[in-house]
Amino acid sequence: MSDTTPPRAASPRPVSPCPRCAHETIEHITGSPVPGVWEVLQCARCLYMWRTSEPARRTRRDAYPEEFMLTPEDIGAAPEVPAVPPLRGPGAGPATR
Amino acid sequence: MAYDDFRGFLDALRKEGQLLHIDDEVMPEPDIAAAANAAPRLGGHAPALYFDNVKGFTDARIALNVHGSWANHALALGLPKETGTKEQVEEFIRRWDTFPVAPEWRDDPVWAENTLEGEDADIFRVLPLIRLNDGDGGFYIDKAAVISKDPADPEHSGKQNVGIYRIEVKGRRTLAIQPVPMHDIAQHLHTAEERGEDLPVAITLGNEPVISIVASTPMEYEQNEYELAGALRGAPAPLSRAPLTGLPVPWGSEVVIEGVIEGRKREIEGPFGEFTGHYSGGRNMPVIRIDRISYRTNPVFEHLYLGMPWTEVDYLIAANTCVPLYKQLRRDFPEVQAVNAMYTHGLVVIVSTKKRYGGFAKAVGMRVLTTPHGLGYAATVIVVDEDVDPFDLPQVMWALSTKMNPAGDLVQIPNLSVLELAPQAITPGITDKLIIDATTPVAPDNRGNYGTQVRDLPETAEWLARLQKLATAR
Ligand SMILES: [Zn+2]
């Protein structure tokens, strides 16, 4: 998907982009038990999750610290930890460690 | 003095003046994490914190810093809160000598009062989750005990595992987990994934305090954490079967989450401010699907802040890192007197030992590197004489000042294994390690110009006791 034509379907209303990766598809995860105080949101691309009542340095793209920003390239280059082992059929003998 | 549930321990902390109830309204972020960040700065008698007036929540109860001082650690072990650090480690060693103590099965676990299943098993409905550090990728659960079994040997209770792992909340019913390759759960997951299976897990929160200690103790693969809990408690650990997975879980937990680590699946995780005092993250890690949540009515959410040391995690993994290393070293080398592995889970280890003959201290240092825990930690090992207290850092510095000559006392071993989170590694997981021999050379190692060492006068111990008494009576 392109960042210039953000789909809004996942979000009940337009919200700011992801503070961390600037993606525009933001999911609504939950709201405050006291109605209307805060919401918990999540970026559909980098999975950053935050509460709307947090300080700007955690919730706004323009105030988000550069050292914590994530790009699609970073996500693509993320290593697998731990690596997924090759499949072994049942009865293939004891697993090696 | 054993606590069977988390609330029993909170009551004990309250009675001892070691639980600070903050009833002013606070913001979920950044207030709660900042308070827990600050609490250990109050010193060796820092209290646990209890919040129940959190903006936007109607019935949140959040306890933090529960193990976050030597006073609270002592109370967790049923010791007087004034007990010194070294004395707590020594008592821990004595109690470990009674290991294993079989657990006790109990009916009617306190967490069976309420249940959410399937689509209703929404973690946000049960836990007042809060975020910790600025760079964290989301909400973390970092003081829960995660229980799993070896899929290749599920009946072997020694091969079951109870451990604390970093868990990120990825959705209402989705978590991420970090199984470090050196840890038992990574072996369980490896076996399950080779077979193309999911790995069932139970995650328990708000545990009685000894469960948190054993779950973060670096035990050997076939040692059972609950049997160590029994030894440390001086009473069997009360357990019950988790209803969905049948996994053995503490009887007195506030919340029991059950589900599976989904086999062969990885997803972007982190970062998270780790116990190393550095963030780690941006890696694809395993994912947990939540299938069932059981919880006590009005659950208390126990959480842990970690950051620039020392914070609660440093107290939680201090004594319990020293003791297994001490026991493993003593098996081969009874000359070993004490082990201080309290710094960053034993990335630095200080050992005091008698010397069998010249060169012996270096052999003890090398043995540290080949213990199970040493394989992932012990980047630096400092070996000191038997009369130096490794818990007394000014004495350790004196040993380094006078007993160490780089010409013959530094042993650097290249390219050894270390946990992937160790920031100093050359490439994650590989580092050089250093043994510093700060012992007095003995024959036939005749280096140095050591005259006779000045020792405490024979009457000093008696005078110390006398002065302490006079000082308290002032
Ligand atoms: Zn994002």
Task: Note down, in words, how this protein is organized.
The complex is a heterodimer of chains A (97) and B (474). By secondary structure, chain A is mainly β. Chain A has helices spanning 56-59, 72-76; strands spanning 26-31, 39-43, 49-51. In chain A, strands 1-2-3 form a three-stranded antiparallel β-sheet, with no helix packed on it. Chain B has two domains: 6-315, Electron Transport, Fmn-binding Protein, Chain A (Pnp Oxidase, Chain A, Roll), CATH 2.30.110; 318-438, UbiD C-terminal domain-like (3-Layer(aba) Sandwich). Chain B is built from 13 helices and 25 strands. In chain B, the strands form six sheets. In chain B, strands 5, 6, 7, 8, 9, 10, 11, 14 and 19 form a nine-stranded antiparallel β-sheet that branches. In chain B, strands 21-22-23-25-24 form a five-stranded mixed β-sheet. A four-stranded mixed β-sheet of chain B has the order 1-2-3-20. In chain B, helix 10 (360-369) links the parallel strand 22 and strand 23. Chain B is globular. Chains A and B meet through strand 3 of A and strand 9, helix 5, strand 15 and strand 18 of B. The structure holds zinc ion. Residues 18, 20-21, 23, 43, 45-46, 48 of chain A line the site of zinc ion (ZN).
